[in-house]
Amino acid sequence: MVHQETKSTRQSISVPVEGTRLDGILDTPPLNGSPARGVILFAHASGSSRLSPRNQFVAAELNKAGFATLLFDLLTLEEDRVYDNRFDVGLLSKRLRIATHWQTDQSATHALPVAYFGASTGAAAALIAAAELGNEIAAVVCRGGRADLAGAYLRQVKSPTLMLVGELDDDVITMNEDALGVLRCTKRLSIVPGATHLFEEPGTLEEVARQSAEWLREYIPPPAHVTNGQNKPEK
């Protein structure tokens, strides 16, 4: 992974959704006066939140690679107490789409390309939202993803999609292999050696972050240089 000198600006945010608000964290790394390369919205696993240490770690590494990141809760605390809500990928994907459109009105991110990073059931929500938003989503990364829960939406995904699964996560490997056969977009399944479902083994989450950054950098072009207020494309 190519690390750039960066100090992220962290902002607590609140996304208005259907009569309620979802708490989140927006990190925008200023890079020598240039804009971030893109903004990555995180869709968390069932029972998880914006405070997930695994997603926070990956987000920090993506910040170093030049991306803004938005981690937010897909459910309120009360909604999360209802177990079935955690697997309602239709609801979760709707929330993700709303947050995607919300961030287009924010000064720090409105002009940035958008990508998704989804974990477990959040990966299904990310794939469904990507299918519905089409070319609005530059890329998708899934970590230990339940891509199978996206069902028929898989055929509609246009965004280049990377699936990262632990070598020891046998059931999820099978689910992702099946989903890979259905996807019609640019796609890759990467098996992370020695990793279980939560990527708790030494070095495995670092590998997730490295491959995620490489995938996102491949499909999100670098920002134009800003000189004297004028945007000039890189040569």
Can you give me a brief rundown of this structure?
The protein is an alpha/beta fold and 235 residues long. The chain is 31% helix and 25% strand. The chain has one domain (9-221): Rossmann fold, CATH 3.40.50.1820.
What are its keywords?
single chain, 235 residues, alpha/beta, Rossmann fold, 8-stranded mixed β-sheet, two-stranded antiparallel sheet, 6 helices, 10 strands, disordered C terminus
Structure description:
- With 235 residues, the protein is of the alpha/beta class.
- It has a single domain, classed as Rossmann fold.
- Helices cover 31% and strands 25% of the residues.
- The strands form two sheets. An eight-stranded mixed beta sheet has the order 1-2-4-3-5-6-7-8, sandwiched between helices. A two-stranded antiparallel sheet has the order 9-10.
- It contains six helices and ten strands, in the order E-E-E-H-E-H-H-E-H-E-E-H-E-H-E-E.
